[in-house]
Specification:
Elements: H1 18-21, H2 31-49, H3 52-57, H4 63-74, H5 98-115, H6 120-135, H7 142-156, H8 174-187, H9 194-200
C-alpha cells in the first residue's frame, strides 16, 4: 500500500511520510486513483458539514469539530484521519506546538466572530490561512480541510460557501498557483488579505 505512484510528486503538496503512507486503507496503485478515492470521501463529508442541520447544531470554533471534520473527509482513505500529525513537515509549526496553536486560532476566530473584528468572509479566510499555513495539523489533506472548514465558518456567519477559483486545487495548474500566491501574500510583511479574499470568491 505504500507504493502509490506519484503520491509525493505534485508541486506545493506536503510530502506524506512512509509511516503515514502505509496507513492507506484502500489498495490503490496511482496518485490519480488516490485523488478519486479521496474526492468521493470528501463529497460525503461536505454534504454533512454544509447541511443546514449540521451548520445549525455544530460549533466550528471548537477543537473536536475541527478533528471530526477531517475524520469525515478522509475516514475511508486513511487510518490517521482526524488525528494530528506526529512527523515534521516542510510547512507549519512543530509537532509539540500543534495543540496550543490550534487553541489560540480557535479562540481568536471565535473572538473575531463575536466582536465583528473582521467581516465574515475575512474571518473565514484568515482562519483558513493560519490553519493550513501556520499550523498544518494533519499528516495530509490540510488544504482541503482548511478550505471546507472556512466554508463552514462562512455559512455559519450568514455567507455562501466559497468557490475557491471554481477549480480542483489538488493538482498543479494556474488556479493552484493563484491560490498559493494568495496564501503567500498574507504571509508577507504587509499581511495583504485581499488576494485570498478575492480568490476564495472567484
Amino acid at each position: 500500500m505504500s507504493d502509490v505512484v506519484g503520491v509525493n510528486d505534485a508541486p506545493g503538496n506536503t510530502p506524506i511520510d512512509p509511516d503515514e503512507l502505509v496507513q492507506l486503507i484502500p489498495s490503490l496503485a496511482t496518485k490519480q486513483e488516490l485523488d478519486e478515492w479521496e474526492r468521493k470521501n470528501i463529497i460525503d463529508a461536505r454534504t454533512w458539514a454544509l447541511s443546514p442541520r449540521t451548520v445549525g447544531s455544530r460549533d466550528p470554533f471548537v477543537e473536536p469539530y475541527l478533528r471530526e471534520l477531517h475524520r469525515r473527509m478522509f475516514d475511508q482513505t486513511w487510518k490517521w484521519a482526524g488525528k494530528y500529525r506526529k512527523t515534521e513537515k516542510n510547512i507549519g509549526c512543530t509537532v509539540p506546538e500543534i495543540a496550543n496553536r490550534l487553541g489560540a486560532l480557535l479562540g481568536d476566530a471565535r473572538y473575531w466572530a463575536e466582536h465583528d473584528t473582521y467581516p465574515p468572509d475575512e474571518i473565514a479566510v484568515r482562519f483558513h490561512h493560519r490553519l493550513v499555513g501556520t499550523i498544518h495539523p494533519f499528516p495530509n489533506g490540510n488544504g482541503r480541510h482548511a478550505r471546507l472548514h472556512a466554508d463552514v465558518i462562512a455559512v455559519k456567519l450568514g455567507r455562501a460557501e466559497f468557490t475557491w477559483g471554481r477549480n480542483d486545487l489538488v493538482g498543479a495548474g494556474p488556479a493552484r498557483a493563484r491560490y498559493l500566491d494568495a496564501l503567500r501574500a498574507l504571509d508577507a510583511d504587509d499581511r495583504n488579505v485581499k488576494p485570498l479574499l478575492e480568490f476564495a470568491r472567484s
